[in-house]
Amino acid sequence: MYYNEYLNLKSDLASGNKTFKDYEKSLHSLINRIIIDVQQKNIDGDVKKVIDIVNSVKNIEVPAPVKKRFDNILLNESEIAQRKTILNSKPRVLYCVVTSLCNIKCIMCQIIKQKWELPERAISEINDLMPYLEIVKWQGGEVFLYKHFEQLMDAAGKNNVSQEIVTNGLLLNERVINKLINYNVDLYISVDGLTKDIYESIRVGADFDLLINNLQLLKEIKSGFTDHVMNLGLNVLVMKKNIDQIEFYPEFAKKYGFKKLCVNAFGPDFISDENIFHYNKNKEFEIKIMQIKEKLLNKCKDLNIELFDCLPTFQQQESVIENSKKDEIENDEHQNKINNTDINDMKYKISEDKVMLCHIPWQKIFIDSDGTINPECFCDRHNPAGNIDKDKIADIWNGKIMQEYRTIIANESYHSRCSKNCVTGITHIKALKNIINPNLFWWYK
Ligand SMILES: C[S@@+](CC[C@H](N)C(=O)[O-])C[C@H]1O[C@@H](n2cnc3c(N)ncnc32)[C@H](O)[C@@H]1O
Ligand code: SF4
Ligand code: SF4
Predict the structure, then answer these.
(1) What's the gap between Cα 156 and its chain centre?
(2) Neighbours of 330 (CB within 10 A)
(3) Distant-in-sequence contacts of 342-351, Cβ < 8 A, 24+ apart
């Protein structure tokens, strides 16, 4: 089907029925439909269709800038379909902490307790992956403090890799901003207060006036570019100190040209009175949070800002705790059943159920703030797949632990190793398997 469509496009071009520009546009759309379809079929467990699509599109001539990426997607999806544990395809998503060091000391930050930087040697390994990567997410510490960061950003930019950066925004300057816009980076800036006193009391060592100057500069430079697709996101962590300012974030976002607003809550690992979701919880905060959620929703709608509200409703939070207790009991019961089940019953169950829980070990590499590598941050951090300080990414990719993850997921025996949140469905299914980037030509103007 896809190949016939391609042949028709070629003949329209040859006969003059289509201009080259129109042909190119139709070809891009065809390629995007293929990669979406093949990924969706694997997500749905339709293994035969995956192999059919891969075989039928092999002779399509794909534009050079995406050729390696396209071929890698097809190879990777066919390897997932065949449940391969040793892969010839390369990682498609890289999540990379480049340094745990920072120019400031936020009161809630755990990462800066480490003293770690991405070794220089790893840069060429990451560069080699660039033609295949669909998305790279850079994080710190503070990424702009890492002396090789621009080199990494340039390599991703030149290879049209979609980049995402989370930053405190304090080290931005004109040269860096121009690059960020040219490379269409999705930039998320964390601002935990809207006034100098609150912001600086949370982000210790930061200068609120410098932040505002940088946001102004970013807005001015961005306004000089007409055809960029850079997205700007504003991050805030809600706590006792800033709770009364949260409702005014949509106006702040609008003023400085942010398109997204991400409002986040703490997990239980941050033990402090500031953590009003776990350790300083009372009725007054609960009511405030509910009112804030509603105000944010209405204001963001009016101001055309995309809201990512990750604050729990307190009723929801209680039901999540209840559900996770229930899931724990059910999980133990399920594990008992597995332990007591005849091996033939297990085989029957596996062949009956073709949909895999997670595709991450086939697709992603996550380099953590101490150099350890895993498929994702949810995976078993006590038993990592390797360490970038001593291992090569290529060796880790097909190393013992990565193979183990692939095997246990393919065999549905992941209960012993995988995170409870993944196994019990608390982690959203789209975080475990999803279409990675539906547009291979997102950078094309
Ligand atoms: C660790 S920082 C690194 C990037 C950059 N330095 C920044 O502050 O945006 C990434 C994000 O994690 C958030 N963060 C820091 N400490 C946290 C904690 N204990 N729990 C949840 N998020 C936290 C920050 O506010 C920031 O938005
Ligand atoms: S700016 Fe980011 S990395 Fe630095 S201390 Fe704050 S949260 Fe941590
Ligand atoms: S299910 Fe969760 S823990 Fe298991 S491999 Fe996937 S992301 Fe990692």
Answers:
(1) 16
(2) 12
(3) 349/412, 350/411, 350/412
Residue of the nearest CA to atom 4 in ligand 3?
418
Do 379 and 402 contact (CB within 8 A), yes or no? no
How many other β-carbons are positioned within 10 Å of the β-carbon of residue 422?
21
pLDDT for residue 226: 82
56-102 pLDDT tens trace: 999 999 999 999 999 999 999 999 999 999 999 999 999 999 999 99
CA distance to 67, 144, 159, per residue, from 135 (Å): 16, 19, 11
Ligand nearest to the CA of 141: 2
User: DSSP H helical segments within 226-282, as ranges?
Assistant: 249-255
Angle, CA 83 vertex, CA 77 and CA 86 arms, to 5°: 90
Atom of ligand 3 at shortest distance to CA of 380? 3
Q: Which residues line ligand 1 (CB under 6 A)?
A: 102, 106, 108-111, 139-140, 142, 166-168, 190, 235, 237, 266, 270
Q: Is the CB of 101 under 6 A from ligand 2?
A: no
Probe target for ligand 2 pocket from 101, 111, 114, 167, with the most ligand atoms within 8 Å of CB = 111
pLDDT of residue 282: 84
Ligand 1, atom 8: closest residue by C-alpha:
168
Strands 186-190 and 306-309, sheet pairing? unpaired
Residue 280: pLDDT band with limits 50, 70, 90: confident
- Ligand 2 pocket check for 358: Cβ under 6 Å: no
Residue 332 has pLDDT above 50, yes or no: no
Q: How many CB atoms lie within 10 A of CB 3?
A: 15
Tell me if 111 CB under 6 Å of ligand 2.
Answer: yes
Average per-residue pLDDT for the chain: 91
Q: Is 237 in the pocket of ligand 2 (CB under 6 A)?
A: no
Ligand 2 pocket member 157 (CB < 6 A) = no
Indicate if the pLDDT at residue 179 is higher than 90: yes
- Name the CA radius of gyration of the chain, rounded: 24
State mean pLDDT over 221-227: 88
